[in-house]
Amino acid sequence: DAVDNAPAIVVGSGYGAAVAALRLGQAGIRTLVLEMGRLWNTPGSDGKVFCSTNAPDQRSMWFRTRTEAPLASFLWLDVVNRDISRYPGVLDRVHFADMSVFVGRGVGGGSLVNGGMAVTPLRSYFAEQFPTVDAAEMYGTYFPRARAMLGVNTVDPAWFEATDWYRFSRVSRKHAQNAGLRTTFVPNVYDFGYMQREAAGTAAKSALAGEVIYGNNQGKRSLDKTYLASALGTGNVTIHTLEKVRAISRAADGTYVLTADRIDTTGNVVETKQYGCRYLFLGGGSLGTSELLVRARETGTLPALNASVGAGWGTNGNVMLGRANHLWDTVGANQSTMPVMGIDDWANTANPVFAEIAPLPTGLEHWVSLYLAITKNPQRAAFTYDAASGTVKLGWSAAQSAVSVGMAKKLFDRINAANATIYRYDLFGGAGKVFADDFTYHPLGGCVLGRATDDYGRVKGYSRLYVTDGSLVPGSIGVNPFVTITALAERTMARVLAEDTAP
Ligand code: FDA
């Protein structure tokens, strides 16, 4: 069979992958990026690249016949989800037995669908999670490098205080303060200058038009506009889309051999390709990379992978919930989709929680305060290979989610008590579920730094094989994770290019 060879291959095109592609390209190394999703640059029949959250179509979700939005219902009605046709849409929800994981699909990975919150973790917690990483170097060099490259900026505080679009945040801030809790501004990669022009009516609305989880048509500095644009600009990087890597092996001469299925927009495999490379960088995300390596170990194609591959997975303690406000506490019909504030109770050692104040942009006043809580849940799970089905399973249980709920509940019971408010029971399905603990936006771990890999992401048992994505993070980082993933990838690439690729 014809093997298409490249000096370096990067699997995926999310944060870790995009950093690898840029730094390899700048070093003059010819690099091929393989991404299972599509390139999001061509407008559909409505003139827009991405569809809106209010009227989702085939572009919204990865090969579905109905959307599966995180908020399933409103006033117990299934008003949120819509029938769609099967297509490689931008948001995927991957279902395991007791946990489902939202991930982005397309050139840019999670950066296409996420809330853009660009948070640097608390240094003490970073050091706790990564005891073998030099924190001084991370906070002095790699975090600043990541933030600059990602285009991180902050909302103008004066505009924040005055605008209708962040009334929902100010109401939640007041309620947190009434309970003696601290709030903090959260940086974002959405261009706040652009957002102010949206509000002024001088620019096309995106964050102010409900766009986020199915993609932003304007304003957001997703990876296709930052790292990946620069990577392509080096002239050394090529991206193949709609190609899913399904197997990795190593030839006798040390070449890594990848098997990839090329699909069409109906999902049919139209070609199976073989690629060879000397250097292999895995950036398929916590799920994608863990799946590839667990399968490679268990099917014997990379038998020297150690027992830590697949282990150390967590949800970053994610729980979503809503509170019902008093009638006089209106949150506003106008809500920006980009969160800019969090309730920071991480220093509370008895119950550490960082809760992002999330928007619920329906275009109508609904008196709901919505939150995505990040709790310090110590539970971890492992991926295992099911030989009968050839699939990888995740061992996370409902009891492990209950730990996150317990922590979120303690914090929000305090907030409800201080404000004489209650939870909303109608948002997460018909059973009156208050805490959405069965999905996560922040899958982390599976190939943890220093365990499945060395301290720089070099996979143990093999040379020239690297992990650069969220699977390196041991299940929890206490804040939204993409800045940490990007900074760790910068650190890996600096080391690898200095030490491993010398002629
Ligand atoms: P990432 O998941 O970004 O990229 C992996 C890529 O590899 C994908 O494009 C995938 O299609 C591709 N891939 C996987 N397997 C493959 C294979 N076998 N072959 C080919 N391609 C493959 N974080 C944050 O810091 N702030 C925030 O505000 C938010 N908000 C948020 C909202 C929503 C709705 C979601 C779903 C997620 C967030 N996140 C977030 C999380 C954040 O987006 C996430 O942590 C990062 O995207 C993870 O980056 P990685 O590099 O690990 O992989």
TrEMBL record:
The keyword Transmembrane helix does not apply. The keyword Oxidoreductase applies. Residues 104-127 form the Glucose-methanol-choline oxidoreductase N-terminal domain. Its cofactor is FAD. Keywords: Cholesterol metabolism, FAD, Flavoprotein, Isomerase, Lipid metabolism, Oxidoreductase, Steroid metabolism, Sterol metabolism. Pathway: Steroid metabolism; cholesterol degradation. Its EC number is 1.1.3.6, 5.3.3.1. PANTHER family: CHOLESTEROL OXIDASE, FAD-DEPENDENT OXIDOREDUCTASE 2 FAD BINDING DOMAIN-CONTAINING PROTEIN. Belongs to the GMC oxidoreductase family. This is Cholesterol oxidase. It comes from Streptomyces phaeoluteigriseus. The lineage of its organism: Bacteria, Bacillati, Actinomycetota, Actinomycetes, Kitasatosporales.
